[in-house]
Amino acid sequence: MKDLESWLKERRITEVECLVSDITGIARGKITPVSKFMAEKGMRLPESVLLQTVTGDYVEDDLYYSLLDPADIDMLCRPDISAVYPVPWALEPTAQVIHDCYDKMGNPIELSSRNQLKRVLALYAEQGWKPVVAPEMEFYLTKRCEDPDLPLLPPIGRSGRQETGRQSFSIDAANEFDPLFEDMYDWCEVQGLDIDTLIHEEGTAQMEINFRHGDPLMLADQVFLFKRTLREAALKHDVVATFMAKPITNEPGSAMHIHQSVLDATTGKSVFANEDGSMSQLFLHHIGGMQRFIPEALPLMAPNVNSFRRFLPDTSAPVNVEWGEENRTCGLRVPDSSPQNRRIENRLPGADANAYLAIAGSLLCGYLGMMQQLNPSAPVQGRAFERRNLRLPFTLEQALERMENCSELERYMGHRFVTGYVAVKRVENENFKKVISSWEREFLLLSV
């Protein structure tokens, strides 16, 4: 805390945003004067924040009080001094500090998504392994729209015109929003967010930002903060940035591709490669675990009703957990690389996923394969769309049922987390079903 106090004084910080990530990935917490922050060395929040849905509702009372203390007590949120960042868009000198959640006995709270990622990383550490990840975040820029019943439209760029048609990898189309992206890069640099390449993706005004590879917890923190940063930069330029998985009809969905590899914690060498550079058994077992358990862990990577709109046959979002080298039709792609950099690209998570949980789930599946020595299917040489094995759940309801009945997930993530997560997502799904869509009004109103 002394180092943190010095950091705050050097930058003349007057306010601190104390943050925790809820199950959805929304930043919850308090904004407090720096003097109070240092005096209290953290904050208290109702533990129920971790069971709040994206609509602001909660799970039913019987489940609510079985997962939480019946007195509805506060949890203790302690700052992680390695997760302190300035807030470059704030009017006053402000810092944002990511906190970890503990109960009154000092135990990490199971419902915390950041704690879940820490649990998975501890499993790897026990085996002498160090996982490395590199997320890729896709998103759309759109016009502001106050009416949620209206479809989203592309924003107007520097030329004064809206983008039309597919502009994959177009430099000029990306440059239409240079002022916004300059602020984004500047603000990310101030915060130390390790973003790399910007590209224009396939959709209209759809972009992708790549993060440099590194420690999974650090990268999850950075994705958490990057979403805040990009939204603020977009609002400054009178547009909207959205990480919805499928925000626009007839346009591609937005993914959070996760590149993952595993190093020997002592030597730093990849455990995915043999001495001669060939694929190791641990690498194949890692893929085998992802193939076996991703269908059960899918709600961590596709957490919303809208998430499943990405998963359409013959699109850039594969509806499978096949694997293949340099094969984008596979849910698990092995990019061409040196043996030391051999990795798996998990192409299934959506941009709407909570980065802590998507990374935790993806790494846990691979870990289980390594521990249980699970062998993968044969790699796909051509179009993986033609393969029919290892199918994923088609709806959120199916996915939640599979997650709920997976004993391995409950064993490693805990009963409270799995039960609470599934319950939150079911409440959200029930809320969704209460809303009548424009498709129903258009095609059923006068026809049935």
Automatic annotation (TrEMBL):
PANTHER family, A to Z: GAMMA-GLUTAMYLPUTRESCINE SYNTHETASE (PTHR43785), GS CATALYTIC DOMAIN-CONTAINING PROTEIN (PTHR43785:SF3)
Cofactor: Mg(2+)
UniProt cross-references to InterPro entries, sorted A to Z: Gln_synt_N_sf, Gln_synth/guanido_kin_cat_dom, Gln_synth_cat_dom, Gln_synth_gly_rich_site
Family named by the database record: Belongs to the glutamine synthetase family.
SUPFAM superfamilies per UniProt: Glutamine synthetase, N-terminal domain (SSF54368), Glutamine synthetase/guanido kinase (SSF55931)
Protein name: Glutamine synthetase family protein
Classification via SMART domains: Gln-synt_C
Keywords assigned: Ligase, Magnesium
Domain GS catalytic: from-to ranges: 113-448
